[in-house]
TrEMBL record, chains A, B:
Gene3D superfamilies: 3.40.50.880. It holds the Pfam family Peptidase_S51. This is dipeptidase E. Its EC number is 3.4.13.21. It comes from Phaedon cochleariae (Mustard beetle).
Length: 252, 252
């Protein structure tokens, strides 16, 4: 029944979308993931989630990564199971909620393709409406493509297209230009502008560390501790304050 | 004659290699390319070069880029012709020397593939021995792959394999970790270490801004204003002083 409504009506599909996209897991002055605890717990509790499926593919040591992630979630009252300890595709199909952590975005996306998980996660989140939490690389892959990651291209994925849970790009760990710097490499803003040169129309949301995008159906709101910077082709970048409605970014 | 020697004897091929690989064109306190003027002029003069073929594909505005690059080369007594104003493949075949400037490495490499220039440049440099000067993105593509670029993946090239003029990787604009930083994104060293995790054996030379690698046949020497940092899988990173012999990196 859900399946047919999904294909008949895009709005029904989108109405199920529940995402929490974090710029980073670590924020200066806060314990791992702790700055986002309220938003994470609220999302999981509202959906009666007891166990979160963790995807550790962005780092090489999955078991160590799992141990790190279990701590805050357990403290908050949630179990964590890692996808690397089970049949990955089955785990996605059974998941109550998914958390994809940070690390290297290229390694993460390549692994998702290698294991045939891209479409499976997209369906589980957009069609079945399970909560998706991403941080850093996990936020990059949640968008339409990884074209605006900061990471080093250490492996070659079969495509830069990603989970496409939102129809725009995010740049996590967004950093403002440092006027006092003697470094001559491109600033983050210059890099994002180079991406926009390649597109006919495009939006890139630069999420500073501590900023979070909450998406509920067709509504998007900036949450967290700090504002974001929005880049739109042909326009001057604009500042986005915490609490701002960003639902217009969800229109393809 | 050159062709048959090339295929019969790898050493003959390598003996022709003449490269100058710059970390960056801009260095704090110096005019554009000026810090490397002596090394550039020496390389071109020794080879009786009068006209340099410029490859501007890493930036979007080729004409503007050409105007910028012409200035220092003219001042030093060399003509510059840009590949974007002629038949690209023919231009490579006729070139006396090639200079590939910085910008976005992904855009640069994709364009080289789109125009069938990867093999042509490789042959012209390794087989015919014309001087190759690269800066930043132009240094990245000179190595075996672009896996260690700092750039944003704004376009999807058909491969990360590049010109393969040297059998290792370079990270240009290398930056040491900033212990005072509140930023939680990966340091450059962490990113390079993630790359080494993916390889059985590999070398990455981190060229700080102002550092230059000079390759003459099977000899490589660090030149420029500042040292480099060398990353080898399974070993502690080591400091490389200006003037150091790095020829061992050329052994595949």
């Amino acid at each position: 029944m859900i399946s047919s409504r999904y294909h008949l009506d895009g709005l029904v599909k989108m109405a199920k979308r529940q995402l929490l996209l974090l710029s980073s897991s670590n924020v200066h002055g806060h314990e791992y993931l702790e700055y986002a605890a309220k938003d994470i717990c609220e999302l999981l509790t509202l959906n009666n989630v007891s166990t979160v499926l963790f995807v550790p593919y962005a780092l090489s040591n999955h078991e160590e990564y799992l141990k790190k992630v279990e701590q805050p979630f357990r403290r908050w009252g949630f179990q964590v199971e890692s996808i690397h300890n089970q049949n990955p595709l089955e785990a996605v199909k059974q998941a109550e909620a998914i958390f994809i952590g940070g690390g290297n975005t290229f390694r993460l996306l390549k692994t998702l393709y290698d294991l045939n998980l891209v479409e499976a996660i997209n369906e589980r989140v957009l069609k079945n409406g399970i909560p998706y939490i991403g941080s850093s690389a996990g936020t990059n892959v949640a968008t339409r493509s990884i074209h605006t990651t900061n990471d080093m291209p250490i492996v070659y994925p079969p495509s830069f297209d990603s989970l496409n849970l939102v129809p725009f790009n995010i740049n996590p760990h967004y950093q403002d230009p440092d006027d006092g710097s003697k470094h001559k490499g491109e600033t983050r803003e210059e890099r994002i502008m180079q991406y926009l040169e390649e597109k006919d129309s495009s939006h890139v949301l630069g999420l500073r560390e501590g900023a979070t995008l909450s998406v509920n159906g067709n509504t998007a709101v900036l949450k967290g501790l700090i504002g974001a910077r929005l880049f739109i082709k042909g326009q001057k970048p604009r500042e986005i304050d915490v609490g701002s409605d960003l639902s217009y970014l969800l229109k393809e």
